[in-house]
Specification:
Elements: E1 2-7, H1 10-26, E2 31-35, H2 38-42, E3 45-47, H3 59-83, E4 87-91, H4 94-105, E5 110-114, H5 126-133, E6 136-139, H6 145-150, E7 155-157, H7 161-165, H8 172-178, E8 188-192, H9 197-217, E9 222-227, H10 230-242, E10 248-252, H11 255-261, E11 264-268, H12 271-278, E12 283-287, H13 291-300, H14 308-313, E13 319-322, H15 328-340, H16 342-359, H17 363-375
Parallel strand pairs: 1-2, 1-4, 2-3, 4-5, 5-6, 6-7, 8-9, 8-11, 9-10, 11-12, 12-13
């Protein structure tokens, strides 16, 4: 069995590594090739490009990198065919991977897409192209299956691997001890501006300025800022030179520990907001896009929310501060509310337990079994 996998994000690398581990149990002689990060490579993937090759977000950014992305996709397509791939698994990064899946499927390669694009939220017409591209869709969230069933696309809800990895009851004391914090230090606030370079560029300074403002209001506040990669660490170090924050720990990774240790957090919209949910950490969600991408998204978005906690709850459970609302005054006000109104923070935390349980399904194993079933169909 020759399995070709393509992931373009740190979150995709995490998903891919868990999936490969389970696929090896079902197909002991399987070989793995494609594009992935250190975690997937540790499980046996031969990666042709660095993980960040596909890590581009927004219409403007994609257009700027389009020639390079087309070249990479063409190379991966030719490589998969010459290698003799039996199965192609695209992990997230839908604007890149679905096109590759479609081309390989026309050449007789079975195709699976892991992590549904947000077709339920915007660009719903994409479902027609998706149907032509894949033999199976694997979704992380329960409400995502409806649109695929409506269009007769084979789909399986597998749950979320991070929900399996993180404990239902976080050990806050142990996390604080591991980070060298003491119980008396209050409040502890985690800052997570995202894993992409563009996210750190747009949100990094904003989050640090917000921390400066909070520090003036709450002098005993301690901040944790986990950098998603070595490159993000270096970029944040440069930002800290311009926006220094007293009592801030800049961490290499350790996002799970930081979120479990924190009393509350300020996070970028995306996977990290879901991670904060699993850690039961009250949060404020923020995001900024390139101006044109934001303008375009307002016409295409079909849901009242963008953050995963709110989408799962189907209500405004956490504050979403996007684009113009993503400013120091607003974010400071929101964090201050969580610090001073325990009932608001408690409502979030209580809801997080129920949502965590809903997504805790042994996702990697479920995904591997669904793939094996599809191959035998």
């Amino acid at each position: 069995m020759k399995i070709y996998l393509v992931a373009g994000e740190i979150s995709g690398d995490i998903l891919g590594s868990g999936l490969i581990a389970e696929l090896k149990l079902l197909f002991p002689k399987a070989e793995f090739r494609g594009l992935g990060g250190e975690l997937m490579q540790a499980e046996g993937l031969t990666s042709l490009y660095p993980l960040e090759t596909l890590s581009v977000m927004g219409v403007v950014e994609i257009l700027k990198h389009l020639p390079k992305l087309i070249k990479v996709r063409k190379h991966l397509y030719q490589d998969a065919l010459s290698w003799g791939a039996d199965l192609m698994i695209g992990i997230d990064s839908p604007d890149f991977t679905l096109g590759l899946e479609k081309k390989l499927r026309t050449r007789g390669v079975k195709t699976v897409h892991y992590v549904s694009p947000s077709v339920w939220a915007w660009r719903q017409g994409r479902i027609k192209g998706i149907k032509k591209s894949i033999d199976l869709m694997l979704t992380l969230l329960p409400f995502e299956t409806n649109i695929y069933k409506d269009h007769a696309v084979p789909v399986t809800f597998v749950g979320h691997p991070t929900a399996d990895k993180l404990p239902m009851e976080p050990n806050k004391s142990a996390a604080r001890l591991n980070l060298g914090l003491v119980e008396e230090e209050q409040p502890i606030i985690a800052l997570l501006p995202g894993s992409r370079a563009g996210e750190v560029a747009r949100l990094g300074a904003l989050f640090l300025q917000t921390a400066q403002a909070i520090k003036k209001m709450h002098p005993k506040a301690v901040f944790l800022l986990p950098a998603a990669s070595t490159k993000r660490y270096e970029e944040i170090m440069q930002l800290l030179a311009d926006y220094p924050v007293k009592d801030l720990q800049l961490l290499q990774g350790k996002a799970d520990q930081a979120l479990q240790a924190a009393d509350l957090c300020l996070v970028a919209s995306g996977t990290v907001a879901l991670e904060a949910l699993f850690c039961k950490t009250p949060m404020v969600v923020s995001y900024k896009l390139a101006p044109f991408t934001w303008w375009l998204s307002k016409f295409m978005l079909k849901t009242p929310w963008v953050s995963l906690p709110n989408l799962l709850a189907q209500k405004t459970l956490v504050h979403e501060r996007l684009q113009d609302q993503a400013n120091v005054d607003q974010l400071t006000q929101d964090l201050h509310q969580l610090l001073n109104e325990p009932a608001v923070a408690a409502e979030q935390t209580q809801a997080f337990y129920a949502l965590h349980q809903q997504l805790k399904r042994d996702a990697s194993k479920q995904a591997a079994q669904a793939i094996a079933k599809q191959l035998n169909a």
